[in-house]
């Protein structure tokens, strides 16, 4: 039976690229279960297919996932390229920090990509953003599709890896991918002048093949992420600046709020951890504590 990977899913159809490079349009047989949980196939899933026609088949089994993101929905990516625009829409740190927590929790490698650099007059602002995230050991790439800046640098991160582009609508994910793909094929859409937000141009997750090797997924922009299903104790390990210093806290299980001899609060005072990142940590912690408990 042919094996392959789902590269696109549209209203009940799964598009599978087999190991021989064939593309099959498939339905799925029933519901799949792993670890007693029911799952629907996701883009990125490795599957087994029964051929039912020339270019048609049925997905009969799904392999356990290496990684799984629900927003955007994709399985088996190793790396997240977190895309944020510097302008149109303006840079916002909070949604970036939210997404970083999710990607860290899944154990993904992370690259932060700041787009639309050509719209920047004040380099100082970009240097500040860069400093905050480099202090957390994240690589930061600045790009522009107008000048071509950063495209090669990004390409080097993507080579031979399985990556996903994630970020809000209108930040330029598809535009950037068009610079990296052999044929410029992805649809892009102008940001609304009136509301200053993207128009949700990309509608599906699609896993694309890079000509220099590697796979990359374009995804629809998403707005708000919540921390559903996450425990307060997990949050610190999703902030690299906290994770690397947490063992120096006096109490095991320190939540770094106002416990005595907290190494993280000291790091913030000494400016080893950025104050705004710490404030976001505290805010996310509040949100997690206010979530209805699961039983
Ligand atoms: N000035 C400038 N505009 C850009 C750049 N990159 C993208 N844009 C513009 O930003 C708008 C949105 O780009 P898209 O690529 O559709 O954004 P997206 O992130 O894919 O959005 P969704 O598919 O809705 O999630 C388009 O009008 C692009 O031309 C850039 O580097 N500089
Ligand atoms: Mg898009
Ligand atoms: Zn602490």
From TrEMBL:
GO function terms (MF aspect): GTP binding; GTPase activity; metal ion binding; rRNA binding
Keywords: Cytoplasm, GTP-binding, Hydrolase, Metal-binding, Nucleotide-binding, Ribosome biogenesis, RNA-binding, rRNA-binding, Zinc
Biological process annotations from GO: ribosomal small subunit biogenesis
Record's subcellular location: Cytoplasm
Binding site for GTP: 115-118, 167-175
First-tier enzyme category under EC: hydrolase
Cofactor remark from the record: Binds 1 zinc ion per subunit.
Gene3D superfamilies: Nucleic acid-binding proteins (2.40.50.140), P-loop containing nucleotide triphosphate hydrolases (3.40.50.300), Probable gtpase engc, domain 3 (1.10.40.50)
Residue span, CP-type G domain: 66-225
Protein EC: 3.6.1.-
GO cellular component: cytoplasm
Cofactor(s) listed: Zn(2+)
Positions of Zn(2+) binding: 249, 254, 256, 262
Broad class of the protein's primary localization: cytoplasm
Record-annotated EngC GTPase domain positions: 75-223
InterPro entries assigned: G_CP_dom, NA-bd_OB-fold, P-loop_NTPase, Ribosome_biogen_GTPase_RsgA, RsgA_GTPase_dom, RsgA_N
Superkingdom of source: Bacteria
Role: One of several proteins that assist in the late maturation steps of the functional core of the 30S ribosomal subunit. Helps release RbfA from mature subunits. May play a role in the assembly of ribosomal proteins into the subunit. Circularly permuted GTPase that catalyzes slow GTP hydrolysis, GTPase activity is stimulated by the 30S ribosomal subunit.
NCBIfam families xrefs: ribosome small subunit-dependent GTPase A (TIGR00157)
Subunit (UniProt): Monomer. Associates with 30S ribosomal subunit, binds 16S rRNA.
Similarity-based family: Belongs to the TRAFAC class YlqF/YawG GTPase family. RsgA subfamily.
PANTHER family the record matches: SMALL RIBOSOMAL SUBUNIT BIOGENESIS GTPASE RSGA, SMALL RIBOSOMAL SUBUNIT BIOGENESIS GTPASE RSGA 1, MITOCHONDRIAL-RELATED
Name of the protein in its database record: Small ribosomal subunit biogenesis GTPase RsgA
Organism: Thermoflavimicrobium daqui
């Amino acid at each position: 039976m042919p094996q392959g990977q789902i590269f696109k899913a549209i209203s009940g159809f799964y598009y599978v690229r087999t190991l021989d490079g064939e593309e099959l349009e498939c339905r799925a047989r029933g519901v799949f279960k792993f670890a007693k949980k029911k799952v629907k196939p996701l883009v990125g899933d490795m599957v087994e297919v029964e051929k039912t026609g020339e270019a048609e088949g049925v997905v009969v089994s799904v392999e356990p996932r290496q990684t799984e993101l629900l927003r955007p929905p994709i399985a088996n990516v190793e790396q997240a390229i977190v895309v944020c625009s510097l302008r149109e829409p303006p840079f916002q740190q909070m949604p970036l920090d939210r997404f970083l927590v999710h990607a860290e929790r899944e154990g993904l490698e992370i690259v932060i990509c700041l787009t639309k650099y050509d719209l920047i007059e004040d380099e100082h602002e970009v240097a500040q953003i860069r400093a905050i995230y480099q202090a957390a050991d994240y690589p930061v790439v600045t790009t522009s599709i107008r000048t071509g800046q950063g495209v090669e640098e990004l390409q080097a991160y993507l080579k031979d890896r399985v990556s996903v582009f994630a970020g809000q609508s209108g930040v330029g994910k598809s535009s950037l991918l068009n610079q990296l793909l052999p044929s410029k094929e992805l649809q892009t859409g102008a940001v609304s002048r009136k509301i200053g937000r993207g128009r949700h141009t990309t509608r599906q997750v699609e896993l694309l093949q890079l000509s220099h090797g590697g796979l990359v997924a374009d995804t629809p922009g998403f707005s708000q992420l919540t921390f559903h299903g996450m425990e307060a104790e997990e949050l610190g390990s999703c902030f690299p600046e906290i994770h690397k210093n947490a063992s120096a806290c006096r109490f095991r299980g320190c939540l770094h709020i106002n416990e005595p001899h907290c190494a993280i609060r000291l790091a913030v005072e000494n400016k080893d951890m950025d104050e705004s990142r710490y404030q976001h940590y505290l805010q996310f912690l509040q949100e997690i504590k206010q979530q209805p408990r699961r039983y």
